[in-house]
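> forwarded from #structure-qc
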């Protein structure tokens, strides 16, 4: 199976594509745009997902959001003429909810706010350093390379959170 860039965003105005990819002015005007995109994703998670959707709902909504992000981010990359431009932050935004898969089992040793903060920090760690082969995912074509590495960083953060909770409870 060959991954290809979705074609439907080609028909959208450039202003719309860039506004969505940058989360409005956030990616374009603030320093450290990836961090601010992650903050926006964390707020998105706490407002729409936290204790509401469960595992299945989170996975379904994340899959839809990820596909849309692949399409929009890939088109933004093409229109800006740069590989994975820093101001394109929709990828961080849609990946953040995956940091907290299995939310109820993450609670206990730490209060909810501390789990959210730890998940955010771990996501930024994995997103910036891209260990464990995450960096190789950027080689995927167009929007796939922009988004999939962030999804992997979020899943690595999630696994690390669960491992930490498990180790805490074993102690």
């Amino acid at each position: 199976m060959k991954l290809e860039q979705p074609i439907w965003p080609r028909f959208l105005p450039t202003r719309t594509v860039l506004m969505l990819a940058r989360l409005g002015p956030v990616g374009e005007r603030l320093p450290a745009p990836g961090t601010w995109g992650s903050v926006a994703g964390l707020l998105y998670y706490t407002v729409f997902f936290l204790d509401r959707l469960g595992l299945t709902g989170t996975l379904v909504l994340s899959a839809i959001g990820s596909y849309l992000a692949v399409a929009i981010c890939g088109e933004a990359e093409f229109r800006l003429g740069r590989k994975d431009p820093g101001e394109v932050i929709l990828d961080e935004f849609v990946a953040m909810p995956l940091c907290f898969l299995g939310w109820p089992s993450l609670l206990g040793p730490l209060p909810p706010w501390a789990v959210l903060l730890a998940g955010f920090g771990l996501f930024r760690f994995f997103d910036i350093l891209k260990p464990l082969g995450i960096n190789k995912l950027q080689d995927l074509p167009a929007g796939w390379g922009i988004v999939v590495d962030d999804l992997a960083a979020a899943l690595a953060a999630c696994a690390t959170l669960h491992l930490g909770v498990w180790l805490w409870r074993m102690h």
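QC bot note: The chain has a mean pLDDT of 94. The CA atoms of residues 26 and 36 lie 7 Å apart.
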